[in-house]
Amino acid sequence: MADSAEPNSDRETRAERVSQAYAGNRLLQAMPEEARAALKSTMSMTALARGHVLFDVGEDVRNTYLPCRPTMVALLVVTAEGREVEAATIGWEGALGGIVSGGLKPAYGRAVVQAPGPAFIVPTARLDEMRQRFPAMGDLFTRYADALIAQMMQSVACNALHTIEQRCCRWLLSAHDRSGEDVVRLTQEALADMMGVQRTTVTAAAKVLQADGIIQTRRGRVEIRDRRKLERRACECYGQVEAHFERLLPEIKD
């Protein structure tokens, strides 16, 4: 009997690890259990490194990525001159790559890992099959796609109407939510690239926030010292997107 006890213990440990891993991505956690079971044979987990390009402009989107904390991936619009501007940032609350289409469609933007960490990978064609097979899962992804479009629309308004400091605060709040930690692993250069501004501009805004005790910058990291003050200094865009997200997807909010 002792010989069989250890394998059972190992299986229980593996099951606990899988359960914890699924909890690392809110969309995956909210999927019907039977859908997750059906995906299991084609779903894998990987570690994403900072700066890794998941897909680029014009490439077929063959895989869908479901980031887990503290991973963050930026969707970037790339200009003819090679400049990049953030359209959306995705973390443990969502997914990217073939969210609406069935995959094998050319990507409009570039997906770059901004904060390293784990993520699940599912072949997009397989995920599309599962959406057809499980209507509740299809509805979940449709609502998420709507929330993602809202985030992009609000980002356009924010970039056009609000100050650098307000935009910086908005992004830091979103990054704080996704990381689950007070220290966000992000360089000022990466933040400047996503905001489409010079690094010196972001550095100046960060110095003001740091002087007011709101954040503390370190090499490659930003520590959130006072969340409430950060919220007050941000523009309305952060709250608007969060409220819309909660209306559409209440089951995947904290």
TrEMBL record:
The keyword Transcription regulation applies. SUPFAM superfamilies: cAMP-binding domain-like (SSF51206), Winged helix' DNA-binding domain (SSF46785). GO terms for cellular component: cytosol. It comes from the Bacteria. PROSITE patterns: HTH_CRP_2. It comes from Caulobacter endophyticus. This is Crp/Fnr family transcriptional regulator. The keyword Transcription applies. Gene3D superfamilies: Jelly Rolls (2.60.120.10). Residues 162-228 form the HTH crp-type domain. InterPro entries: cNMP-bd_dom_sf (IPR018490), Env_Response_Regulators (IPR050397), HTH_CRP (IPR012318), RmlC-like_jellyroll (IPR014710), WH_DNA-bd_sf (IPR036390). Keywords: DNA-binding, Transcription, Transcription regulation. One of its GO terms (molecular function) is DNA binding. Pfam families: HTH_Crp_2 (PF13545).
